[in-house]
Amino acid sequence: MANIFPPGADHLLRTALILGSGLLAAGIVILVAFAHSPYVTGQGRILVQPVPFSHRHHVGEAGLDCRYCHGAVETSAQAGMPDSATCMTCHAQLFTDAPMLAPVRRSLADGQPLRWRRVYRLPDHVYFSHAPHVRNGIGCTTCHGAVGEMPLTAQAVPMTMEWCLDCHRDPAPHLRPPDAVFAPVAAAMDLSGDRLDALMQRYGLRSEGLTDCTVCHR
Fold first, then answer.
1. What residue numbers bound the domain in which 145 lies?
2. What transmembrane ranges does the database entry give (predicted)?
3. Are 207 and 172 in contact (CB under 8 A)?
4. What is the largest CA-CA distance in the chain?
5. pLDDT at 161 > cutoff 70
6. What is the C-alpha to C-alpha distance for residues 125 and 143, in angstroms, rounded to an integer?
């Protein structure tokens, strides 16, 4: 009886299986890398805003406290954005005729708020509140980076679920004393040993429960 398959068919099949498996594995690696890339996560992204606001100038150089503009950060889910009247508290006296501030002056005159573009955007199914984070010693720079050094605000971290869970599993490295929570640049701190234990007790933090699904998905 004549052979149905040629003599080299077995070799070709093995080669095809190996190549197919390799391509599948490579495809999975590429997809995972793409999902974690800045193109998807937005890390490093700088958005065009109605006014090119510089945190480096206002916070790093002028020394404004975060809460001057983001007044709701300690009590609400959203940090809050300053209204035009807050901006003009200073700019009615400083750089009053600067062309770049024309949208602020027009906003105040018309009573229409500036439409700032959100730099950090989470999916609708994710719940995040600023208040418990800052009240429990998580510094602004943990998520927002060294804003005091940013001429234009960029997304400093990937904000993936994996990134958030790493902090929830071990919040200790991100804790700051109360007087350093709003520091615009993350300073090196010795938070080991007794000092770390004291901070954990002060804030009443326990890692248990912080990784429950309902903490972020409600």
1. 74-80+119-216
2. 12-35
3. no
4. 100
5. yes
6. 19
Q: Mean pLDDT score of the chain, rounded to an integer?
A: 86
pLDDT of residue 198: 67
* Residue 150, helix vs strand vs coil: coil
Confirm if 76 and 130 have CB atoms less than 8 A apart.
Answer: yes
CB burial class (10 A; 0-12, 13-18, 19+) of residue 84?
Answer: buried
Number of domains observed in the structure of the chain:
1
User: For residue 7, is it within any domain?
Assistant: no
In a domain, 28, yes or no: no
Cβ 41 vs Cβ 93: under 8 Å: no
Instruction: Quote the tokens at residue 157.
Output: 């971290």
State whether residue 124 is helix, strand or coil. coil
Amino acid at 120: Y
Q: What is the pLDDT of residue 47?
A: 93
Q: pTM score, two decimals?
A: 0.78
Decide if 184 contacts 60 (C-beta within 8 A): yes
Write 194-197 long-range contacts (CB < 8 A, 24+).
196/172
> Is the residue at 201 inside a domain?
yes
Q: In the 3-class helix/strand/coil scheme, how is 72-107 assigned residue by residue?
A: CCCCCCCCCCCCHHHHHHHHCCCCCCCHHHHHHHHH
In this structure, is residue 64 part of a structural domain? no
Q: Is the dihedral of CA 14, 17, 20, 24 positive or negative?
A: negative
For residues 13 and 22, give the distance between their C-alpha atoms in angstroms, rounded to a whole number. Answer: 14
Q: Which two tokens stand for residue 76?
A: 């609400």
